Amino acid sequence: MSINVSGVTKRFGDFVALDDVSVDLPTGQLTALLGPSGGGKSTLLRIIAGLESADSGTVTIEGTEATHLPPQKRNVGFVFQHYAAFKHMSVAKNVAFGLEIRHRSKEEVKKRVGDLLDLVHLSQFADRLPSQLSGGQRQRMALARALAVEPSVLLLDEPFGALDAKVRKELRDWLRRLHDEVHVTSVFVTHDQEEALEVADEIVVINDGRIEQIGAPDDLYDSPASDFVMTFLGPTTRLGGVLVRPHDIDVLTHTVPGAVAGRIERQLRVGFEVRLTVATEDAQQVEVTVTRATQRQLDLHEGVEVWLTPTTGVPRAEIAAV
Questions:
Q1: In what residue span(s) does the ABC transporter domain sit (predicted)?
Q2: How far is CA 45 from CA 3, 40, 41, 60, 132, in A?
Q3: Which of 45, 131, 152, 170 has the lowest CB atom count within 10 Å?
C-alpha cells in the first residue's frame, strides 16, 4: 500500500475530529475521501501531509514511517482549494518554485516546467501572472506545481470547490485523464458525491471522525453498508418502510400484488427527468424519478392514481431496511 494510516486519533479541544481511524490507500490509485463538512476528511488529509499532527496512531508513506516527519520530507504534493499561488510570480515561476528551492539545475528546471505546462495545457500562459488566469487555469497551475517535484503521493483538498459547476465538471474529467497519464498515487477530499463517483478508483466515506465504508464507487452505490452511506451517495426515499432510490421505483397505473397505492401530488421536470411526489394511502410521501418518455407514455400528472413497486433486479443491499 502507498499510504497506511493506523489508529489515528485527533482532537481539537473537546471535539474529536478523527477517532481511531485506520485505512490503507493503494499505490497508483485515485482515492476520494468523501463525507459531510466537519466529518474529518480534511483533517485526515492534513495529517497524511504532515500539516497536522495526530494525537495517536501512525502514518506510513511508501513504506517509510512518516508520523513525525515534517511535510517537506514526506515527498508529497499538496493542492489547496484556493490555489495558494505566489501572486507576484509568473505561472512558469510558480511551477518552478519547488524545484529551485531544491537547487535543481537551470536546464532541469526549464525542461521540467515546460513538460508540465504542456501536460496541463498552460504553455501559452507561462509568462502570465496567476491573476490573469481563470479559476480553472489557476487550479491546473497548482496541480503542475505540486507535480513538479515528482511526489510519491499527490494530496488535493477540495481542489475544485471554489469553481462553478461547469468548470468543476471539466476539471474532474481532466484530473481523471491526468491521473491516468502520470500514475501518481492521488488522494482528494470532496463532499461532492458525483465528483467522487465519477473520478475515484476507490472511495473512503468518513463521518463524525470514523470511516463508514471503503470500496469502489459501484460497490458503495450498489451495496451501502449503512443508511448513512446510502443517503450520502445519492437521493433516497422510503417506500413501504424501506430506503430506496427514487429512480429504482416502478410506477404503474394498475394494481399488482404488493404494490403501494398512492396519488401524484406534485411533478417537476428537470431536463430529461420528471420528479414525482406521490402521497400513499398510509399518508407517506414518496419521491419517484422517471424519464420524460415514461411520464408521457403513462400520462403521469398531478392527481393521477398510481401503484409503486421497487424496480425488479435492484440488489437487496441497495434497499436498506429501517
A1: 3-233
A2: 11, 9, 6, 13, 30
A3: 131
Beta carbons of 120 and 143 less than 8 angstroms apart: yes
**Nearest Cα to 156, choosing from 88, 234, 84?**
84
CATH of domain 236-321: 2.40.50.100
**194-235 pLDDT, tens digit each:** 889 999 999 999 999 999 999 999 999 989 999 999 999 989
Q: Locate cell 485523464: which residue?
A: 177
Note the pTM of the prediction, 2 decimals: 0.82
Asked if residues 308 and 249 have their Cβ atoms less than 8 Å apart, the reply is yes
Domain range annotation of the chain: 3-229, 236-321
Q: What is the rounded CA–CA span in Å between residue 182 and residue 144?
A: 11
The CATH fold of domain 3-229: Rossmann fold (3.40.50)
What pLDDT was estimated at residue 321?
A: 43
Q: DSSP string covering 70-88, please?
A: -GGGTTEEEE-TT----TT
Cell 466537519 maps to which residue? 38
**Gyration radius of the chain over CA positions:** 24
